[in-house]
Write a structure and sequence with these properties.
By secondary structure, the protein is of the alpha/beta class. The chain has two domains: 202 residues, 2-enoyl-CoA Hydratase, Chain A, domain 1, CATH 3.90.226.10; 55 residues. The chain is built from eleven helices and ten strands. It has a six-stranded mixed β-sheet with strand order 1-2-3-5-7-10, sandwiched between helices. Strands 4-6-8-9 form a four-stranded mixed β-sheet. α5 crosses α6. It is globular.
């Protein structure tokens, strides 16, 4: 597919998916929706792509949510059959494939400005969020009686807890990057213009790691969340053996037994983040 409202960039195993409507704060139209579905389908199914980074074009917005300038027409022309499919959870989402829950590759959001309404929902779609110091977050659609429809009511409470999530959802208040970091919405704050650079740095490191256990561990965490501890442990145990009997495991055990720690090898530039050894 030729993209006109997003960018899709391949970079040595990394997929960079970028909202590309900076003049309208990277809001999502019906065209953007279709392009996002296609891009995430490519990332999900292409084994050569290991990590995805989601960001926005420009320095003002990550994504400001759905394009409300066309929503009135969309509501007036909505087909009952389409509405029913949404109610039954059989559509991928309203602003792209936001209802997908089975992408078990790592996803990083590089939040380079406002992340409002559906934009906040897309930030929550990621596993990690790196925010620039001027970024802000909010369920701003609250002002226009537009409900969340792309995971905000479900993912946000899982990330920050029910109390904080309900405050944001009910009041529509906007918080800055520091507050987002304090409540656990954001994993890291970087200077303006540096979120994509930092996300690529982190993604490159992740690409150096063996992939099978990353994916099964993410799947176990996602599928087990909300289940009883007993059920979650069963999911974890089953998935462990999907990654255990792989060439990557045997290679890892060989490296361990030969004391070939990846962080301690000469001329190694990719070291585990946060671990410093002299």
């Amino acid at each position: 597919m030729k993209y006109t409202q997003i960018e899709f960039i391949r970079d040595n195993g990394i997929a960079i998916i970028k909202f590309n409507r900076p003049k309208v704060l990277n809001c999502i139209s019906t065209v953007t929706h279709v392009e996002l579905v296609d891009a995430w389908t490519v990332f999900k199914n292409d084994d050569s792509l290991k990590v995805a980074i989601l960001t926005g074009e420009g320095d003002r917005a990550f994504c400001s949510g759905g394009d409300l300038s066309i929503m009135e027409e969309g509501i007036n022309n909505a087909k009952e059959s389409e509405i029913q499919l949404h109610k039954e959870g059989k559509k991928e989402g309203t602003l792209g494939p936001s209802r997908w829950t089975d992408i078990y590759k790592p996803i990083i959001a590089a939040v380079n400005g406002v992340a409002y309404a559906g934009g906040l929902e897309w930030a929550c779609f990621a596993d990690m969020r790196i925010a620039e110091e001027h970024a802000s977050f909010g369920v701003t659609c609250r002002r226009w009686n537009i409900g969340l429809s792309d995971g905000g009511t479900q993912r946000l409470p899982r990330i920050v807890g029910m109390g904080r999530a309900m405050e944001l959802i009910i009041t529509g208040k906007v918080i800055d990057a520091e507050e987002a970091y304090r409540i656990g919405l954001v994993n890291e704050i970087v200077p303006k213009g540096k979120s994509l650079e930092r996300a690529i740095e982190l993604a490159k490191f992740i690409c150096t790691l063996p992939q099978p256990a990353i994916r099964t561990d993410k799947e176990a965490a996602v599928r087990g969340f909300g289940e009883s501890l007993d059920e979650g442990l069963k999911i974890e145990a089953a998935l462990l053996f999907d990654s255990l009997f792989t060439p990557e495991t045997m290679q890892g055990l060989e490296q361990f037994n030969k004391r070939l720690h990846p962080d301690r090898q000469p001329n190694t530039t990719s070291k585990t983040p946060g671990i410093v050894r002299k």
